[in-house]
Amino acid sequence: MTPSASLPHHTAVVWSRISGEPQKMATLVLSDDRMVITYEESYRASGLPRMSLLDDVATETERYFEYPVTERMPLLPRLRALVPGNNPRNLQRTHYLKALQRRTGVPPPQGIDTEWELLLMGGHGGIGHVDIFRDDLAALDWYDRKPGEPVFAADMGRSGLWRFLREQVLDEPNGLQADDILDIIGPTPSVGGMIPKLLVAMSPGLKDETCYPPGTPGKTEVLLKIEPPEYQGLLSLEALCLDLHAEQDLEVPAYRYFEHQGLRFLAIQRFDQPQMQPMESLFSVIATGSHEVQGMTDVMLEDLGGIFRQLEQVIELKPGTRAELYHRFILAYLTGNGDLHLENLSLLGGKTGCRLSPVYDPAPMRAWARHDLVSAIPFDAEKYQNEAEVFIRLGHSLGLPETEINYIIERSLEGSADYAERLADCAGINDHQRRRLMEVVRGARRAMRGR
Ligand SMILES: Nc1ncnc2c1ncn2[C@@H]1O[C@H](COP(=O)(O)OP(=O)(O)OP(=O)(O)O)[C@@H](O)[C@H]1O
Ligand SMILES: [Mg+2]
Question: Distance from the CA of 192 to the center of ligand 2, in angstroms?
Fold first, then answer.
């Protein structure tokens, strides 16, 4: 197969450091109707993981991988994680849009041309093993930059970064010019999700609150979330839920919650580091394999079992993955997290030795009315008599035996029995949110007990 010719309008190159050394992986060409990835022969021969799990399977025999793009899904799904999230608090998007405007003199128009520029600016050095650049020279320049150049000063309280964060997250004017910001946060890679965040490094064990540039030798790579005022208490709730998942023997990254002069932070150790590993959201895996899936609500909860069965035909998934996935859904329901969507679940590792990533983003979002859903992955409500049945049947569709379903539910009920008390102690959350969440959680426990 060779890719058919349609007029290309954007090109880029893909590199990776997964072998320990930067290495060119592929060339990307985007045209009106498709994105074509052409792998370097040497990279293909190396057997190293390619851009995404399913293209890795497909390109065992082919040098090309083609993905049909549409208005809803204008890029290969895996690239979504490398473009800064499209929301007003995304620090990287704000920063790069300002930089683009400085370059062209006009506000960047909405659309694929701007998204592509954002991909080229922020699509390297982020989470996972895929780095995107304009061309090979840009890649070599970037990998050659001096390690440990200060991205921002370690003393957050007095640094420009501090003023930048206060402006972006608390809407405080700071008098910083656009060029100052570039000096302060430097080439900051894209990170997905709704909450403002930066990739930084901290002392091993996260034993103090000083932040260093990512890649600083001897330090630990972390994702630093910064709480926006519209989600007051979110990060302390997220920390509580990380604890609860860890107590249930689910793998949870080390974290440190801290507050500093009016800002609240959650630093979470990165699990795609220090040994670099491919990481891909379940959404990206599913949408790459099934072109009708172009948005997160295109997959139903009832589809998940079948999707996992299909995946297991082509990739080697760690035994017990479906049971673990189920455990996470039950805990999400019992803790008031209706936001366990397909980008809050990821697979870590290549097509052999693939597993669910450690738990991330278990925040109980039902505390906020606009996120008060039983499940962010839609289900066909008419098919069920009550909420508990949704989750029992999910267990069946995942192929779990009745005994395992019951074991997981009982264990989760037991592990979250004192959750309401722990919520009462949770710092930062206001009474309205606390009451709402307690109500939701009580209802979920009642439903599960009465199943
Ligand atoms: N510890 C980690 N190590 C590596 N990658 C991570 C880690 N935690 C999160 N990520 C990645 O960063 C992305 C954003 O993180 P997260 O989901 O916690 O943010 P969020 O803003 O709360 O998301 P949402 O929009 O779902 O509320 C995740 O989708 C995941 O790809
Ligand atoms: Mg998330």
Answer: 7
